[in-house]
Write a structure and sequence with these properties.
- The chain is an alpha/beta fold.
- It folds into two domains: 2-17 and 237-441, UDP-n-acetylglucosamine1-carboxyvinyl-transferase, Chain, CATH 3.65.10.10; 21-235, UDP-n-acetylglucosamine1-carboxyvinyl-transferase, Chain.
- 29% of the residues lie in helices and 26% in strands.
- The protein has twelve helices and 24 strands.
- The protein has helices at residues 21-33, 47-58, 93-106, 124-132, 171-183, 199-206, 240-252, 271-278, 324-331, 353-363, 394-404, 426-433; strands at 2-5, 12-15, 37-41, 62-66, 69-73, 87-88, 110-113, 137-141, 147-153, 163-165, 187-191, 211-213, 218-222, 233-235, 257-264, 282-291, 294-302, 311-312, 336-340, 368-371, 374-379, 387-389, 411-414, 438-441.
- It has a four-stranded mixed β-sheet with strand order 22-23-1-24.
- Strand 18, helix 9 (324-331) and strand 19 (336-340) form a beta-alpha-beta unit.
- Helix 2 runs parallel beside helix 3 (93-106) and helix 4 packs parallel to helix 5.
C-alpha cells in the first residue's frame, strides 16, 4: 500500500491512541503464567500482539479474543506444553525475546521463528544470558557472528539463577531474563547501565512475583513459593509511542491542535515529552486514573510556537528510543541544532532506523549528519515532498507521513501498510484530522 501526503492546511481533533504495545505483550504473558482468569481490555490491535497471543495458544494457554480485549485462562508456571509446531513470532522482536525467556525457563522446548525482517535481528543478547543460566538453545549464526532466528530450545532443561550485568539498557532483554528467573532455581539478578521502561517490574509485582530492587539499578527475582495470581480484569493504557506521532503532527502543522485521551505517562516512557517541552512545545498533561499499574493522562498539544534544537543524551535514550525517528522530524522544524547520541540500538530494529531517518530527511532537504550512535540535524528547514520507502518499518512509515504534512509538494510513502504493526487505522485517523491531506492507494 502507498500513502500520499500533501501539506495540511489544518490539523485538529481528538483521538484515543491504541492500547500500549509493550504492556499488551506483558499482560498476555503474565496472565498466561498465573493462576486464575484475567479479562484484558484495550489490548494493542497491532499484528505484534496478535503474534504473542498465537504463540501462547500454541503453548497451551486458552485466550479468547473479544472486541479489543481478551480473556486469558492462566495455566501457571508448570502448565505450559511443548508446542506442536514452530512458534511464529511474525515481525515482533518483543514476542521472540520475551517468549525466549518463557520457553527456556519452562523447559518445554520448541522453535521460535518469524518473518524475513525478524530473522535479521540479533538474538544473541538473550540467548547468551539464557545459556549462562543453563538453557540449551541456539540460533542461526550470521556472517558477523551473531545469532538470528529461528531459535531452537531443548526440552526438559532446568535453569539456575545467576547475575546478569547488561552492557546496554534493554527492557526486552531484562524482561526475558526476569521471566526465565521465575522458573529458575535460586535468585536471578539483572542490572542495567541505565533505567529502561519498567512495565515488567510493575506488572510482576501486581501478579505477586517476589522482586527485590537494589540501589544500583539491579532487580532480583526468585521462583515464587505460591502461584502468581492474575487480577480479574486489567485495562491497558494508550500507547505513548503511538501518541507521539499525533503530538508531533500538531507541532509541525501551523496552528495544529490535538487532544489525546487515556495515554500512558509512565516516567520511563515519556522521555520524548520531556524533550519536546524542553524544545518549547506547548503540551499539557491532565491526569486520569491509573491503568494496569501505570499513570495515565490526557495530552493536549498546540503548534505555532517556535521550537529550538536540543541535545538528547545517551542517558535519556532508553525512555524515548522508539520516538527518535519522529523526534528527528520535529527537530527539522526547530531553530538551531539537535544532536541525538546513544541511540545505536536503533540500528537493529525492524530497519536500521538511524540510516533510514537520515536518508529520508536528506531526501526532504534537511541538513543531517548520521553518527554511529545518533544524528545531528540543523533546522528549521522548509521540507520538500519526497518518495520514502518504509523499509518494512512502522515507525519509519508514520514518521515521514507526519513530515509530509508540512512539506511542499507530495510525499509518497511506499509500504505504508507496515503502520498496521502498531497503529491500525493510522492513515484514516490522520486523514480525518487534516481534512483529507492523507490518502492511501492499495
Amino acid at each position: 500500500m502507498r500513502a500520499l501526503i500533501r501539506r495540511a492546511a489544518r490539523l485538529s481533533g481528538s483521538a484515543q491512541p491504541p492500547g500500549d504495545k509493550s504492556i499488551s505483550h506483558r499482560a498476555l504473558i503474565f496472565s498466561a503464567l498465573a493462576s486464575g482468569t484475567c479479562a484484558i481490555d484495550n489490548l494493542s490491535p497491532g499484528e505484534d500482539v496478535r503474534s504473542t497471543a498465537a504463540c501462547l495458544r500454541a503453548l497451551g494457554v486458552s485466550i479468547e479474543a473479544h472486541g479489543n480485549g481478551a480473556l486469558v485462562r492462566g495455566v501457571g508456571l508448570g502448565g505450559l506444553r511443548t508446542p506442536a509446531a514452530v512458534l511464529d513470532c511474525g515481525n515482533s522482536g518483543t514476542t521472540m525475546r520475551l517468549l525466549a525467556g518463557v520457553v527456556a525457563g519452562a523447559g518445554v522446548g520448541g522453535v521460535l521463528d518469524g518473518d524475513e525482517s525478524l530473522r535479521g535481528r540479533p538474538m544473541k543478547r538473550v540467548l547468551g544470558p539464557l545459556r549462562q543460566m543453563g538453557a540449551k538453545c541456539e540460533g542461526t549464526r550470521s556472517a558477523k557472528g551473531d545469532e538470528m532466528a529461528p531459535l531452537r530450545f531443548e526440552t526438559g532443561v532446568g535453569l539456575t539463577g545467576v547475575r546478569h550485568d547488561l552492557t546496554v539498557a534493554s527492557a526486552q532483554v531484562k524482561t526475558c531474563l526476569l521471566l526465565a528467573g521465575l522458573f529458575a532455581e535460586g535468585e536471578t539478578t539483572v542490572r542495567e547501565p541505565e533505567v529502561s521502561r519498567d512495565h515488567t517490574e510493575r506488572m510482576l509485582k501486581a501478579f505477586g512475583a517476589p522482586l527485590t530492587f537494589w540501589p544500583d539499578r539491579a532487580i532480583s527475582i526468585r521462583s515464587p513459593a505460591e502461584p502468581l495470581r492474575s487480577p480479574s480484569s486489567l485495562t491497558v493504557p494508550g500507547d505513548p509511542s503511538s501518541a507521539a506521532f499525533l503530538l508531533a503532527a500538531a507541532l509541525v502543522v501551523p496552528g495544529g491542535e490535538v487532544t489525546l485521551t487515556g495515554v500512558d505517562v509512565n516516567p520511563t516512557r515519556i522521555g520524548f515529552l520531556r524533550v519536546l517541552q524542553r524544545m518549547g512545545a506547548q503540551i499539557e498533561l491532565l491526569p486520569e486514573a491509573d491503568r494496569a499499574g501505570d499513570p495515565v493522562a490526557t495530552l493536549k498539544a498546540r503548534g505555532g510556537g517556535q521550537l529550538t534544537g536540543t541535545e538528547i543524551t545517551p542517558g535519556e535514550v532508553p525512555s524515548l528510543l522508539d520516538e527518535v525517528p519522529i523526534l528527528a522530524v520535529v527537530a527539522s522544524q526547530a531553530k538551531g541544532r539537535t544532536v541525538i547520541r546513544g541511540a545505536q540500538e536503533l540500528r537493529v530494529k525492524e530497519s536500521d532506523r538511524l540510516a533510514k531517518v537520515a536518508a529520508g530527511l536528506a531526501a526532504m532537504g534537511v541538513p543531517v549528519q548520521e553518527l554511529p550512535d545518533g544524528l545531528i540535524i540543523d533546522g528549521p528547514v522548509p521540507l520538500q515532498g519526497a518518495r520514502i520507502d518504509a523499509a518494512r518499518d512502522h515507525r519509519i512509515a508514520m514518521s515521514f507521513s507526519v513530515a509530509g504534512l508540512c512539506a511542499a509538494g507530495d510525499t509518497e510513502i511506499l509500504g505504508a501498510e507496515w503502520a498496521d504493526i502498531s497503529y491500525p487505522g493510522f492513515y484514516t485517523l490522520l486523514s480525518g484530522l487534516t481534512d483529507g491531506a492523507v490518502t492511501t492507494i492499495p
